[in-house]
Specification:
With about 325 residues, this protein is α/β, with parallel strands linked by helices.
Amino acid sequence: MDFTVAICTYNGEQRVPQVLDALARQQGTEEISWEVLVVDNNSGDRTAEVVQGYDWASRAPENSRLRWLLEPRQGTAYARRRAMEEAASEDWVGFLDDDNLPGETWVKEAFQFGCDREAWGNRDRPKIGAYGGIIHAKLDAPPPDYFDAVKLRLAVYNRGDRPFCYARTAKPRIVPAAPGSVIRKQAWRECVPEKLLLQGRDEAGQTYVGACEDLETLFYIQNSDWQIWHNPKMEIWHHLPPSRLERDYLLKISRTAGLSNHALRIARLGGKVQVLMPLYLLSDGLKLGRYYLKNSGSFAQDVARACEFQERIGRLLSPFYI
């Protein structure tokens, strides 16, 4: 196999078929041998039955296939690792969540970018370890007026129409989000620890404290000789039902994003974090206090500022949650 598309899902019987439909409609893959690997993270619904009963052979390109497998350990980090271990492709694994709808040329563009110099401007081939694309929002209704201020928390962003390498020296350092990202197997094997500090969302246990494990993975890769790139030709649509735009949900994911901060610092900086811990605690505490004094009167009305406050609380507490 040239390319593996991995879909990690929990209780996705209603969502996964739409992703499979979008993948079955892929264009421009005639010269690519590829597969779709659905990693079922111990679902309690009919996900297995739905995937195994999907008529991929009559809907999808001939040079592709669909597989299902079970990962019984709860948490998206376990599901992603299992996908990387079981992927038939020896080079590239592209990740989609079960609410991500790829554009009709997503597979072609994802594969080509890693293999073809023309994809990134005929430069000498860089040592690409991973890359991400553009994530649009797919909404069921008009968005609330605060949507643009919080959309990054929902993994919705557009980082431009030109390819670029994410700089290790940028402040703040950023990497692509998991939806629609592609990772080279060799880079994963060389850089990603066997056990991450963040184990990802445990939706069965209804806890999001381990979220942002995708960023932890990519920071470890970015800290090596491998490069992480932006590929604007890879586009996906992230389906966001109304419940994910509600205040309570946004506050929850903001707090849990903050709680991942200590693990992400370790992924970026390694052993320096422990030495600098007192300074980080002092800095985070002062920033939290200043933010509260400046904005506390607007938290009830301003969802974006309330989310920022919750994330800052999470950052201060994050060393005690690892």
